[in-house]
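Page 37, continued from 36.
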């Protein structure tokens, strides 16, 4: 028995979840349309939270015509580096560029291999192809959805240069064993913290553990400022290589004689400067993000606490008292365990949740990258060979066919979107949890209609998705 008080839409709805008929089976909806959509304009879900300081700061940049300067960007870099506990931060025009500069910074180049989890956004790895490197994919852990440390070593070859550790959906990857493997094989580690700015791994900031890190700061990210990105490192050589590669206007900072000798022109031929309207927003965001992040963390954990112990559902979140956190909980998901619900498909489960009014709840996430044609047969640069193997020895083929990464290939029907709460308001959060409880408590009624489960395919461009 439970009484649901839905305040966000100024409605009060009373239900008896166990006895109430599911909306999918002609019962009444529990919540309103589009609830939980991360693009929803309601106060519970609106993001980023824009204040007057952000607006006035942008106007000042415009009026001073300093959009293409770097004074504000350097201020942001210093503050962001200090907050993350690293020596250097380098602002970029987007996260893709920041990760490419991190790759170049650690020395990734022609004939090298980068190991990356197959389940991630494409910008974690595709840039490696432009450096002449190849991408080899590792499987993921079915509970964290991050790269599985136990699957990394079998992919290491004499050509492996670096490992990309992605903190997927804000969940910290298991960095201790990853770093141990990297040091054992003399490899570099790059962290993609695009989903996890401000998150902790055993008390350490994600992005401060590997040799370098990069992330997107695009509007919908947890630390959202617009189209921007930032690279982090404690290594001066990595920092200077990133500067010489894509930041010609910063070449005066170079101290390495070899790099300085070729300065004046970006070595990569790229112009990756961060736009200062994004920089001023980032500076203002720095002032309020820790508090916003703490409230989001409290709200999301409250949501999952309401569902603790229910069959069929698992929270993708760090264990309590582990010292690890999910930062701002970007694009939160849950884990679905079909066998605990009589084999009910995730398609049918999500269909029932959506029918209750929670349309954000769709199955899947990013599609396994190792199966994309780009990594199999696409010849991007017209070399006469697929780009992912262009610079490898003739007798070497690292392409990975269907069936090679079983967890990644099966994960689409084991994960689903959940609402991303921005405020800790228990009375408003609880009704959303009750939607899931209602469906779980009545799951047996859904099984007879679960005849032709829809194939769950996921999507390549997760962050552009609308609920």
């Amino acid at each position: 028995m439970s009484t649901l008080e839905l305040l966000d839409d100024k409605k009060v709805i009373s239900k008896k979840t166990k006895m109430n008929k599911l909306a999918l089976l002609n019962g009444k909806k529990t919540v309103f349309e589009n609830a939980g959509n991360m693009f929803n304009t309601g106060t519970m879900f609106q993001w980023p939270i824009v204040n007057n300081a952000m607006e006035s700061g942008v106007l000042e940049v415009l009026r001073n015509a300093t959009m293409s300067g770097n004074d504000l960007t350097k201020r942001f870099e210093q503050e962001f580096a200090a907050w993350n506990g690293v020596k250097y931060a380098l602002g970029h025009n987007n996260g893709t560029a920041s990760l490419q500069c991190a790759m170049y910074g650690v020395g990734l180049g022609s004939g090298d291999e980068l190991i990356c989890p197959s389940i991630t956004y494409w910008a974690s790895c595709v840039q490696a192809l432009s450096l002449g490197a190849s991408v080899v994919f590792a499987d993921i852990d079915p509970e964290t959805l991050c790269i599985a440390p136990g699957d990394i070593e079998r992919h290491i070859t004499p050509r492996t240069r670096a490992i990309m550790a992605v903190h997927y959906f804000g969940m910290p990857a298991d960095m201790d064993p990853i770093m141990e493997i990297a040091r054992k094989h003399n490899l570099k580690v790059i962290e993609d913290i695009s989903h996890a700015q401000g998150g902790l791994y055993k008390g350490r900031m994600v992005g401060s553990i590997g040799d370098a890190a990069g992330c997107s700061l695009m509007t919908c990210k947890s630390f959202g400022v617009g189209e921007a990105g930032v690279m982090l490192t404690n290594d001066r050589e990595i920092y200077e290589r990133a500067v010489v590669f894509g930041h010609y206007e910063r070449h005066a900072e170079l101290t390495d004689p070899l790099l300085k000798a070729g300065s004046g022109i970006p070595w990569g031929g790229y112009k990756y400067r961060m736009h200062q309207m994004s920089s001023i927003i980032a500076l203002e965001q720095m002032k309020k993000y820790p508090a916003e992040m703490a409230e989001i963390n409290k709200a999301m954990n409250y949501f999952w606490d309401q569902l603790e112990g229910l069959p069929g559902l698992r929270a993708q979140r760090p264990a309590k008292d582990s010292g690890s956190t999910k930062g701002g909980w970007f694009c939160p998901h849950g884990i679905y365990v079909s066998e605990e619900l009589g084999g009910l498909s995730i398609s049918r489960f999500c269909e029932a949740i959506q029918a209750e009014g929670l349309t954000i709840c769709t199955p899947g996430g990013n599609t396994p990258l190792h199966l994309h044609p780009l990594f199999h047969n696409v010849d991007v640069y017209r070399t006469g060979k697929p780009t992912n193997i262009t610079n490898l020895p003739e007798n070497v083929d690292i392409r990975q066919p269907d069936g090679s990464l079983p967890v990644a290939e099966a994960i689409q029907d084991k994960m689903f979107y959940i609402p991303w709460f921005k405020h800790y308001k228990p009375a408003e959060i609880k009704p959303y949890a009750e939607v899931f409880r209602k469906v779980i408590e009545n799951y047996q009624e859904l099984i007879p209609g679960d005849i032709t489960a829809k194939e769950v395919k996921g999507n390549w461009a997760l962050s552009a998705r609308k609920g």
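Residues 276-307 form the longest helix (32 residues). Flag for discussion at group meeting. Residues 81 and 129 are 28 Å apart (CA to CA).
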